[in-house]
Amino acid sequence: MLTLPLLLVILATGCGGGESNVEKGNREGVLHYGNGSEPQGLDPHVVTGVPENILIRSLFEGLAVKNPETLEPEPGVAESWEFSEDRRQITFHINPEARWSNGDPITADDYVWSWMRALHPEMGNLYAYMLFPVKNAEAFFSREISDFSEVGVKAPDPQTLVVTLTEPTPYFLQLMDHYSSFAVHRPTIEKYGKFTDRFTKWTREGNMVSNGPFQLEEWKLNRRITVRKSDTYWNRDRVSLNKVIFYPTENAVSEERGFRSGQLHVTATLPLDKIPVYQAQADSPYRQDPYLGTYFYLINTKRPPMNDARVRRALAMSVDRATLIRSVLQNSAVPAYSITPPGALGYKPPKTFDYDLNAARALLAEAGYPNGEGWPGIEIVYNTQEAHRKIAVALQQMWKDALNIDVTISNQEWKVYLDSVTNMDFDLARRGWIGDFVDPQNFLDLYLTEGGNNNTGYADPSYDDFIRLKAPQAKNREERFAVFYEAEKMLMEEMPIIPIYTYTSKHLVHPSVCGLTPNLMDSLNLRYVWLDPNRNSSSEPCK
C-alpha cells in the first residue's frame, strides 16, 4: 500500500508554479479522479471490480449505454434495436460510424467472436453468467456443446446482430452496458497470445485497441492511469473532457487530503469521521445518495466451524447493525438483512432474522460452542481500506461481547484479496456487491451453484431451479418477484453470507465538475461530464 506522503506526491504530479491539478485540469479539460484501488486489469472479460468498471467504461462502449439520469438504455455501438413479438429475439443495428481506436469499423462479427471469448470455458470469465439469457450460452460455457454456432448470437451482415434468448429477459438491454458483454478487438487479442489467455500485454499502453470515448494513454502501476479523448469515437463531438487521470486511492485519508489541496476533482469515498464535518458545511462538496448495493461478509461454508448453518446464523444475529451504522458509519448506510437491496423495481426482500442475542447464543450452544467454549477461532479478510478495518474491528468486538468467541482480522491489498476470495482461501471475507443492472436477479444470480461470483461453497438445486427456471417463466413482474422472494428466503435461512448494510454512494466533488449526475447505480458516463472553471459553488448552475 502506498504510504500517505508518497500518495500525496503522486497526486501532486503535474502541478507546476503553485498551480494545483484541479486548476490546471480546469484550464486544459483534464479530470482528476480518485478511483479507489489499482485495477486488477483492463480486460472486460476478466475483471469483476468497481474500480475496473469505471475505467473500462471510459475505454469501451457496449451496444447500449445507460443514461446517467434515468439509467434507461440508449444507443451505443448499436444505433437502434427492435424486439420480436415474443420478446425472445433482439435485432441490433450497428452504427456505421462506430470505429475501433485504430480506425477499423466495428461489425456484428466482432460481437459474435467476443461473446464466444467471454463464454469460452477456458477464459475463466467470472461474469460469463451475465450472457446466460442467450440461447445455449450456458450450455457452451459448461461444455455441454462445443459448437458456438449453436449459441443464439448471429451476424447476418456486418451491421446486423441478431440475439436469440431462451426466455424473455426484462433486463437484457441493461446488460449491454456491462463490460462482460463488450466487444474486444480480435487482431489485438490474438497478437499477444491465445484468445483465452488472461492478463496479457494487449491491455497495456501503446497496445490497447478499444472503442469507447477515451483511449488508454498511460498506465503507471500504483500511480495513475491516463486516458485521452478518442479521435475515432462515433460520438466524439459529445465528449467535452480531453483527458481523465485515474488515481489508485485506497487510503481514504490521503485521498481526502488530496481533494482539499486541489489535487482531485472527485474522490472514490472519504474517511467516515469526515462525513459529519462535510455535512455541516454550507454548500458542501459532499454527495451522499441512494446506491443499489449491499455490504456483506462472505462465508466459506466448506470450512469448520462455518460449515454449520447454526454458527452462521448466530454470527448474523449478533451483529448490532443499528449501532454499527450510527457509531462507525456516521449514519451513512441502512441496515441490511438480505443480499438484495430493498427498492429494486419495487422488490421487497424477506427478513428471516433480526438482532437477537439470546437466539444467537442458543444457536451457538446447539452447534457445540456454549458461551464460546471449544471455539476454534476464525479470521476476517478484508481489502485495504480504513472503513473496512473499522467495520471488521467493530464486528470482532460484538462477537466477543455477545458470544465470547475470538475472531482475528487480516487486511490484504486489492489483488491479493481478490485472489483469496476467488480461491476461497478465507473463513469470512468482506464483500460488496453493486447492481450491474436494476433487478433483483443481479443479486440472486450470485449464489447459483458454481456461479462465477459465488465464492461461498453454497449450492442448492432448489435455489437454482427458482432462479434459472421458475423466474424466467413467470408471466408478470409480480409473479417473478414472488419467485425471487421464496428463493431469497431459502438463501438467507442457509446464510452463506452475512448482510451488514445497504450502501449509499459517498463522494467529494469539486464545484467545477458538471454532468456528474447521481443515480441509483452510481453509474459514471464520462461522455456527459465537463469542467466549468468559473463555477465556484455546487449551487451555481453549470455552463
Overall description:
- Among the domains are: 59-193, Dipeptide-binding Protein, Domain 1 (Dipeptide-binding Protein, domain 1); 292-504, Dipeptide-binding Protein, domain 3.
- 28% of the residues lie in helices and 19% in strands.
- It is built from 17 helices and 18 strands.
- The chain has helices at residues 4-12, 21-28, 50-59, 108-119, 137-141, 172-175, 186-191, 252-260, 275-279, 309-317, 321-327, 357-366, 386-403, 414-422, 441-444, 461-470, 477-494, and strands at residues 30-34, 64-66, 73-75, 78-83, 89-94, 153-157, 160-164, 214-220, 224-229, 243-247, 286-299, 334-335, 378-383, 407-412, 428-434, 497-508, 513-514, 530-531.
- The strands form five sheets. Strands 12-16-11-15-13-14 form a six-stranded mixed β-sheet. A four-stranded mixed β-sheet has the order 1-10-9-8.
- Strand 4 (78-83) and strand 5 (89-94) form a beta hairpin.
- It starts with a helix and ends in a 12-residue tail after the last strand.
- Residues 1-6 have low confidence and may be disordered.
